[in-house]
Amino acid sequence: MNLSDIRKYIFVLLLIFLAFPFAGIQTFGQVTEIMTGYAAYNQTNLQEKMYLHTDRSFYVCGEVLWFKAYLVNATTNRPLSLSKVAYVEILNQQHQPVLQGKIAMLKGLGSGSFILPFSLQSGNYELRAYTNWMKNYPPDLYFKKDIMIINTTKNLDSSAIHEQVSYQAGFFPEGGNLVNGLESEIAFKVSDNKNKGIDCYGVIVDQFNNTIAHIKTLHAGMGHFYLRPETGKDYTAIITCADGSVIRKNIPAAYNAGYVMHLTDTSIEHIKISITTTGLRESNPGAVYIIVQNNGHINLATSQLLENGTAVLVINKDSLKDGMTQVTVFDANKHPQCERLYFKRPKNKMLINIKGDKRNYQLRSKVLIDVATSGSPGNSLAGNLSVAVFRLDSLHQPGRENIFSYLWLSSNLRGTIEDPGYYFNNENAGTNEALNNLVLAQGWRKFNWEKALQKQTPSFTYVPEYSGHIISGKITNESTKKPVPDILVYLSVPGRRVQLKGCVSDSNGLVHFDMKDFVGSDQIVVQLVGQTNTGADNMYRLAIFTPFSGEFSEDVLPAFYVSESDKDYLQAGNFHMQVEKGYHEKDLQKLQTPLIDTLPFYTKPSKTYLLDNYTRFTTMEEVMREYVEEVSVRRKGDNFRFMTLNEPAFPMQDKQPTELMFKENPLVLLDGVPVFDINKIVAYDPLKVEKLEVVASRYYWGPIVADGIASFTTYKGKLEGYTLDPNDLVLDYPGLQQQRIFYSPDYSSDKEQQSRLPDFRDVLYWSPDIATTEEGNGSFSFYTGDIPGTYYVDLQGISRNGDAGSAGMILNVEK
Predict the structure, then answer these.
(1) Which residues are bridge partners to 474 per DSSP?
(2) Percent of the chain residues past pLDDT 90, beyond the cut
(3) How confident is the model at residue 17 (pLDDT cuts 50, 70, 90)?
(4) N or C: which end of the chain has fewer CB within 10 A?
């Protein structure tokens, strides 16, 4: 938030002050202080939000899980280009990662895939995604989705086939706490161990078994009731589930003094916020301050005098932004006392219309689908979309979550929402009541008002990766275990493409390497400059950090259960997977060549020597002495050294010339890895070297200062036959994931139509890159396979201005 925004808010507060003259100068000052503190905090508190569209939610081992990543500004839902890397993981029940990937992001969009290995156990898993910047916030804010994976090569545990059901109930007083003598609305949720809401009814009783209230669920195991707790009484809920099971659960204890708030949706135009207090030490608690904010933007900040312990505020809904609004009540000392959410259904969304050229298709026939995207008012809208086409059965069903419901609703609440579309599809009294229950029961992750009110500038451990993946590590003294500052560290990736970075450790011994365009599964070599096998340098140790988050949500995965009636579908899915792997393994393994800059960091060398163009000598010393004019080989005793020509010195005619030859060794690279011992490069077999590039000038590359560069590249680019120094740290460190090419055969020719190779694809089509024009038009096509059945087309996406949408359609494939 900039200065002009703060001035606008202060102007609004002036109007509020005029509208409520009883608040007084001191009250106005308190509201302004809260406002400015919040504005200053939010100015440096940009939050990202991520959504993954997956091809399905159920898989068997051996299949490919495909996903499209959408990264948006959490405030506006607009695609955000801040972070260039997304981290995607599949976690088991114990929050242990079983698969991990780094995904390149461009303009807030990216895509990737996982081949699900046969080492996985059958069960429910959590698919989650986040950026390095998002690691500064609680893991509840990461994207999370439950998926089921079945390993058909192993027998299922009997507990997964014979369902074992258990129930739990939770109670959530509106605003935070119960207070004796004050009536509160209490939401409740009853769910089973599969995280599914359960229909039930019950009573609230006191310790004398007197019935105080009757309760009943409305939707997805949620409902609400009202309770005015009395001093000295305890309350218990006795709940009867549909199967006759009975749950007894204590209601949260009430305080003897405090604040209670209640939000009422009074009409189409207004909501009413009521605040009541009792038992406070002050005979006249004075004013309360009310902040109404939506994703970091304050809609309203005002004060209300408590008259007989009560204050009422009526708000016009038009003054609220779409989506989730947070209402916070502060006492006279600026301490937050009550907080709750209110959800205003968004008006704008991307409308997606999809239409196939037919309703029914034959085996191996072409499917052409037209796509039209528009805004809610009907205006044309360009969209970036992803699409999955998969076969429907009892295990493979359309997902209830989509990008629209996630960005607006699910991402702002804890836990899993069973049917998000229910709250959007029909706006009536019943869905409004169910929405209120949901908002109260699954609540908001509270904003840290303490930091804002103390005017603390947020401190962030993790930086946004706005250029590329960042590899971080720490240097410590092996003896003292203390961090070591001011050490130059090289990080290189062995290969024909030179990737070399340098960094000097900071006061905390930390080093960070910006690895732009680091793609593929590779090793990295980390070297402390000047480190040898003996001496003090050998006492230094460098540890490279994992870039994946070690923080996990408290959400529990649902219990794993497979019905015996699904046996045939599992067998069919396993058979289809085995056929596809057996006949099309190579097609499934194809990767796209990444579009990256392959030039070395020194761009254009002074001279390139392709050694096959010369008579091949058997020693590197002969090669250097006979052919390489820019590098002079010197020897003293058993030790060699290189001296590089300084070409920029020659044009100096009238001025005092600089040194013609550098006295220090140049930076010597072998397949991109620094070689500090010239004896080792002289002893290297020149017949394994394809080319030598020489930079005959002083070169600066970050903290690296080189008196010339001599870069040797082998034919294989794998340091063949070269032994690294024992102190060099060599790690397997996968780079950004290479994009897998979705296998989609083309049956346009008679030869392909008549091919005897089976086509048992359950996923007929996947594409993360469906785009519509500025006029909102687009299309895509694919071919059916050899499996008849009912297929579902799942299309999701977003526009540049943050309007999200989804659409689906059914198509039939006949024999």
Answers:
(1) 510, 543
(2) 75
(3) very low
(4) C
Q: How would residue 134 be classed by pLDDT, with cut points 50, 70 and 90? A: very high
User: With contact defined as beta carbons under 8 Å apart, do 133 and 98 qualify?
Assistant: no
Closest to 222 measured CA to CA, from 369, 511, 418, 55? 418
> Cα separation of 182 and 257, whole Å?
10
pLDDT band for 280, please (50, 70, 90 cuts): confident
Q: Which residue has the tokens 């579309």?
A: 421
CA distance 338 to 595: 52
Residue 24 pLDDT more than 50?
Answer: no
Could you tell me where the beta strands, DSSP code E, fall in 447-568?
469-477, 488-492, 500-504, 510-515, 521-528, 540-544
Which residues neighbour 434 within 8 Å (Cβ) at sequence distance 6 or greater?
218, 219, 220, 222, 422, 423
- Distance between start and end Cα atoms, the chain: 61
- Decide which of 42 and 389 is more confident: 389
Q: What is the pLDDT of residue 40?
A: 57
Are 642 and 678 spatial neighbours (Cβ–Cβ below 8 Å)? Answer: yes
> Residue 484: is its pLDDT beyond 50?
yes
Q: SS3 for 327?
A: strand
Q: Yes or no: say if 643 and 661 are a contact pair by the CB < 8 Å rule.
A: yes
Total-model pTM: 0.91
Rounded to whole angstroms, what are the CA distances from 514 to 470, 492, 501, 702, 749?
Answer: 5, 12, 8, 11, 48
CB 243 within 8 A of CB 233: no
Q: Report the distance separating Cα 341 and Cα 740, nearest Å.
A: 42
- Alpha helical stretches, state H, 285-419: 403-408
Is 776 within 8 Å of 382 (Cβ atoms)? Answer: yes
3-state secondary structure 622-640: HHHHHHCCCEEEEEECCEE
Least Cα distance to 248 among 215, 204, 218 occurs for: 204
In DSSP terms, 521 is beta-bridged to: 734
| Of 383, 361, 385, 388, residue with least CA distance to 744 | 388
Residue 688, pLDDT above cutoff 50: yes
Strands (DSSP E) along 495-615, which ranges?
Answer: 500-504, 510-515, 521-528, 540-544, 607-610
- Render pLDDT for 217-249 as a digit per residue (tens, 0 to 9): 999 999 999 999 999 999 999 999 989 999 999
Q: Angle at Cα 298 formed by Cα 342 and Cα 70, nearest 5°? A: 75
One-letter identity of residue 783: Y
Question: Is the distance from CB of 643 to CB of 650 less than 8 angstroms?
Answer: no
How much of the chain, in percent, has pLDDT values that exceed 70? 89
Mean pLDDT score of the chain, rounded to an integer? 89
Task: Count CB-CB contacts under 10 A for residue 655.
Answer: 7
Q: What is the DSSP letter of 141?
A: G
Predicted confidence (pLDDT) at residue 199 exceeds the cutoff of 80: yes
Distance CA 588, CA 814 (A): 25
Q: Sorting pLDDT into bands at 50, 70 and 90, what band is 454?
A: low
pLDDT reading at 41 higher than 70 = no
Euclidean distance between CA atoms 241 and 172, whole angstroms: 19
Place of tokens 């069960």: 123
For the chain, give the number of residues: 815
Using the predicted structure, report yes or no on whether residue 9 has a pLDDT greater than 50: no
Give the C-alpha separation, 176 to 326, whole Å: 13
Token pair listed for 227:
């309770």
What are the backbone dihedrals phi and psi of residue 722, each rounded to the nearest 5 degrees, phi first? Answer: -100, 135
Q: How far apart are CA 135 and CA 545, in angstroms?
A: 14
Closest by alpha carbon to 206, among 232, 179, 169?
A: 232
Q: Are 57 and 145 a contacting pair, CB within 8 Å? A: yes
